[in-house]
Amino acid sequence: MTVVGPFGLSVRDQALETDVQAGLAAVEAGLLEATKSEVPFITEAAQHLVRAGGKRFRPLLVMLASRFGDPYAPGIVPSAVVVELTHLATLYHDDVMDEADVRRGVESANARWGNSVAVLTGDFLFARASHILADLGPEAVRIQAEAFERLVTGQILETAGPRDGRDPVAHYLDVIAGKTGSLIAVSGRFGALMSGADEAVVDILTQYGERLGTAFQLADDVLDIASDSHESGKTPGTDLREGIPTLPVLRLRQTAAREGRAEDLDLVRLLDGDLTDDARHAEALARLRVHPALEQARRDTIRYAQDARATLAPLPECFAKSALEELCDAVVHRAG
């Protein structure tokens, strides 16, 4: 059996598959409803990425986490809509900051309508997420606000770079814990919390989401170098072109500084140059794809995914726990 969600997740129980399918369908309907406006142009822009599809990784995690309480509780689907709307809003903003042309296999909103429309559409989605969140109670509002603060802080830290003397890899891991881990942690937390699960279970699934989120972003870093646009749904080497120091590049710089090999130092100089030039960008991408730094980044991804899996150990054995464990394996597989 297969759940509609990221990576073709395999589920071994018919009842769980049916319920998760139904939950994700309700989330999809909720996303379309939440992105409607009385202004047709706003509806078109707001639904641009919703209709482009996506893995719906965060809503799936909400659904699976809810299985440790009452999976039919009324707050589960709305909370899944909230986390996905928030995620979608960040994509509109990210594409402006990265000057990306492609997102989810379609033209990015900023490429289609310009930066101003893309930024304002992201703001519109944040507003709609907040509107839904208000009905889930003050604790849910606080949880989401804290996660959003961490998300923005991670983005600012990425922009500012590490302070003098700080290990760039440690700084980067803090960045992605905020930018990606925070919202995936909230997905696990909302699913468990809205279902009425025990506090200890809520804590476990929050920690699991945080660690899985880090692994998920590290897998994205590997994909940005290793995949083509058909596989990843966005332009390969986008982070590379923008000079964003993702983990494979940071690992390369570590190796070059430590070992001083001429070919590594030459590749670092290439990366420090003008990668808006298509030929230089293509050369850098090709050389990184065969460099050991990429394999080291894959190993880092595996380690975080294994840590996420280990976090689940205290939970009772059930099909939902098995599915959460398989998500860790799927993230690793995604990184190659």
Describe the structure.
With 336 residues, the protein is an all-alpha fold. Helix content is 74%, strand content 1%. The protein contains 17 helices and two strands. It has helices at residues 14-34, 40-46, 48-51, 57-65, 76-98, 109-113, 115-134, 138-160, 168-194, 199-226, 229-232, 238-241, 247-259, 262-272, 278-289, 292-311, 319-334; strands spanning 102-103, 106-107. The protein has a two-stranded antiparallel ribbon. β1 (102-103) and β2 form a beta hairpin. It starts with 13 loop residues before the first helix and ends with a helix.
Helical residue percent band: over 70%
Instruction: Provide the gyration radius in Å.
Output: 20 Å
Largest sheet: 2 strands, antiparallel
Topology, number of strands: 2
What percentage of amino acids are in beta strands? Answer: under 5%
Order of helices and strands: HHHHHEEHHHHHHHHHHHH
- Content-based structural category: mainly alpha
Number of helices: 17
- The chain-level mean pLDDT equals 91
The shape is: globular
Distance between the termini: 23 Å
Defining traits:
336 residues; 17 helices; two-stranded antiparallel ribbon; globular; mainly alpha
